[in-house]
Amino acid sequence: MRIVRALRRAGILGINERNHTYMLRWNRRERYPNVDDKLRTKQICARAGIPTAGVLGVARVHAEIRELVDALDAHASFVLKPAHGAMGNGILVVHGRDGPRFVRSGGTALDREAIAYHAASIVSGLFALGGQPDAAFAEERLEVHPELSQIATEGVPDVRIVVFRGIPVMAMTRLPTRRARGRANLHQGAVGAGIDLETGRTLHAVLAGRPVRLHPDTQEDVVGRRIPDFDVALEIAVRAADATGLGYVGADVVVDASRGPLILELNARPGLAIQVANRAGLLPRLEAAQAHWAPDAPLQTRLARGRAIARSAA
Amino acid sequence: MTRAVACVGFGLIAAGAAVFLWKAALLGTPLQPSESRNLWRVEIELSVRGSEPRSSVAALLPASDHAQTIFDERIGSDGLAFGIRTERGTSQRVGVWRGALQGIRHPSYAFRVQLHPEADPGSPASELPPDALREAAADLPVGAEPVRELLESLDVSLADDALARTRTLFAFVSDELEAAEDGSDDALLVLAGREGSQQGRARLLVTLLRSAAVPARTAMGLSLEAPRDARELVFAEAWADGRWVPLFPTLGTMGTRPADLVVLQRGNGSVVEAHGVEAVSHRYRVLRERLRPDELSALMVPSSPLLGALSLYRLPVRTQATLRILLVIPLAALVVALFRNIVGLRTFGTFMPILIALALRDTALSTGLAMVAGVLLTGLAGRLVLDRLHLLLVPRLCVLLCLVILVVVALAIAGYGFETRDLLTGVLLPIVIFTMLIERFSIVAAEEGYRSALLLLLNSLLVAAFAYPIFHSIFAAHLMLGYPELVLCVMGLLVMIGGYTGYRLAELVRFRSLAADGVGHAP
Known about the structure:
The complex is a heterodimer of chains A (314) and B (523). Chain A is of the alpha+beta class and 314 residues long. Chain A has ten helices and 13 strands. In chain A, helix 5 packs across helix 6. Chain B folds into four domains: 109 residues, no CATH class; 94 residues, Immunoglobulin-like (Sandwich); 128 residues, C8orf32 fold (Roll), CATH 3.10.620; 128 residues, no CATH class. Chain B contains 18 helices and 16 strands. Chain B starts with a helix and ends in a 7-residue tail after the last helix. With 523 residues, chain B is α+β, with helices and mostly antiparallel strands. In chain B, helix 1 runs antiparallel to helix 16, helix 8 crosses helix 15 and helix 10 crosses helix 13. At the A-B interface, helix 1, helix 2, helix 6, strand 11 and helix 8 of A face helix 13, helix 17 and helix 18 of B.
C-alpha cells in the first residue's frame, strides 16, 4: 500500500491504466493497422512528407521471396523485417558480405538459403502478432550517428518519443549493447536514457532496471549526451503521430549519420519503461497535455507545449 | 474504475446472484454440498506379478440390484487386454485382464455406487433359484453326519416355513459360534470347534440351510464405512418367501443389508483369481461422494416447470459431460484474468494456462506437470534439429505434432500413469496444446532468450496449477451445471477486473526504484 501511494505520488502510469485510459480511449481500433503494418506506416509517412528508412525489397507471398533475395544480393547491408512484427521479433540484420554469403551482426555468415528461409518464416506469420500471413521486407541499414557511436555497440540507437494527442510528452534513447546483441530493446539488455525535451540531452540512464552512468561496453558516459537533431526528431515524431490518427503513440526515430532523423516505426502500445529511464511518471504530463489540448494548434505551438509540460513536471 | 463499469459489473453479479438464490430457494437444496451417506466411489486395485507370456487375472464385478445402483464403471487395464464375461448359470459378472506379464502390473476397476438401504426388494421373483443352490458343493458338505445331527438337535422340521427354518439356523450360527479372525474356513471344522472365520461361519450357515431344504448361497460385499483392512464382509443369502434374505452372522443381523454395504459377489469363488502369475493381491479404495443424491435429483427434476425446462441436468449425459467442462472454463478464465491484470504475470498467450490446465484434467497435477516437462524437452530438441532443415512453418509444426504424439505413445508404453481411456479423452487435446506450447516456447527462446522463455513457461504453469483444481472439482462442475447463471457473476467480476486501472502487483516491483526516491512530484 505504501508503495502504491508512492507510485501514485510520482505519477507512474501502470499497464492497466495505460490500456484503459489512454490506449482504449484514444487509439481507435481501425487505426491500429496504420502502425502495426510497418509498410503501411512508411506509405502514410511518405504521403505526409516524413522521412523513413528506405525499403530495398518486399515479399508478400512465398513466390516473391526469391525475387527479394535476388534484390538483396546487390546490397552490402540491410535489415530483414516482418511488416507485422512486435517487440523487435524476427529482425535479421546483415552487416556486410563475405563473397556470396551474408554476414550478420555478431559475425555469423548466412547463405542465400538461410536468408530465404528467414523470409519464408516471416511470410508464414511466425513473428506476426496474431500468426496471420505477413509480409517480409528489407530496409536499408541505418548508420550510427558519429556523435552517438561511443555509446552504442553492435547496433543503431533509437529515440522513443511518446506523443499524446499531438503533444510530445516524454522521450528516451535506447542504446544497444553487446549483451542485447545490438538490439535497442531495454528488456534484452540495452541501456535506456531519458531525454530532456528542451535541450535534447540525456538526463538519467538505466540498465536492466538499475541506474547507470557509463555504457557497459565502452565505459563512456551516457548521461548528459546531446542527441543530434533532437528538435527535428521531436517534430517528425509528432507529425507521424498526427498522420496515423492515433492519440497515444510511441514513435521510434533513428538519427541516421547521413540522412538525419528518420521514422523507424510507430507503436500504438508503447511500453512503460520510458518512465524508469526518465525517473519520472507519465501521468502528470499526460494530464497536463489533456488539459491544454487545442486540436487546431500549429505544430510549433504543440512542440513548445510539450517542452513546457516536461519542464514543469521535472 | 468508472461508474459505468461498476454499474455493469455489479448489475451482472446481482442478476446472477438473484437467479441463483431464487433457484436455490425454490429447489430447496443447500448451497454447501453436504456429505453424502449413500453415494460412493470404489476402486479395486490389483497388483499382479509374473513373467508368463499368457496370464490372466479375474475379478468379480458388482451388479445393480434393488439396493444398489452401479454406474460410471471405469477400467484401468495397465497394458493388459480387458474383457467381461458372465459366469455360467448366474448373473455374476467377471472382469478378466489378459496379457503378457513382465514384472508388476496394476490393473484396476472402479465404479460409483448409489446405495438404497431402505429400498423395498420388490415383488417376489417368479423364478425359483436353480437346483444347484440346494445341493452339496466342494466347500459345502450338505447332508454330512454332524450337520444332520445338529438339525435334529435344533428341532428344525420341514413342516415349518422356510423363513422360520432360516431364523433358527441363523440364530444358532450367530449366537452359538465364536467369530475368530484366524478361525477355520471349513464348515465342518467350524461346527466341531464352535468357532470360525467369517468365511467359515457363512459356509456353515449355507450348508445348514441347504441341508434344511432352503436354497442358499454365500456372498461377499464391502462395508464402505469400515476401516481400510476390514472392508470385506462375507455373508449368506437364503431363499425364503420367494425372495433372497440376507443373513449377516458377523453382524448378528438378518433381513436388511447394512446401509454401507455394496455386494460384490454371490456364490462361491474368491474375489480375485489369477492364472499364470507368481503373485496377486488386491486392495480397495473407497471415497465418499460430495454431492448428495437428493441434491442431484433436485437439480435433475426441479419442482417448477420453468426450471425443469431450463435444467441442464435433463440434457443427455454426453452433452452434460461437455457442459460440465465448458461451464467451469469461465472460472478458470477468472483465475487467468486475476493473474494477468491484477498480479501482472506474463504467460504464453491469454488462454494457454487454461488449455494446459484442461490438458492435465485427467492426470494428477504432479504427473501432468512432469509430462509437460518431458514432452516439452523432447519437442524442443526436435525443434532444434528442425531449425537446421529450414522447413516452412506449417509442415514444421506438423512434424513437431507427430513428434509429440510419438512421445505420448512412448510414455503410454512405459506405463506412465495413463490408461487407454485417458489416452482417448485426456491426451488428444494435450497433444495439440503441447505442440503449440513448444512452438511458442521456442519462438520466445529464440527472440528473447531462454531465461525469458523459461520464466513465461513457469508463469503459465503456475497459473495453470491454480486453474487445475477448478477443473478437478466435482463441486464446481455440479454447481455450474446446476446454476449456469453463475456465469453472469463471473462476467461481472471480469468486467470489474477489466475496469481496474490500478497498478499490477508486478509493477510495484518493477517501478519500486521510482517509488523509493519519490521522483517526479506531480505539479
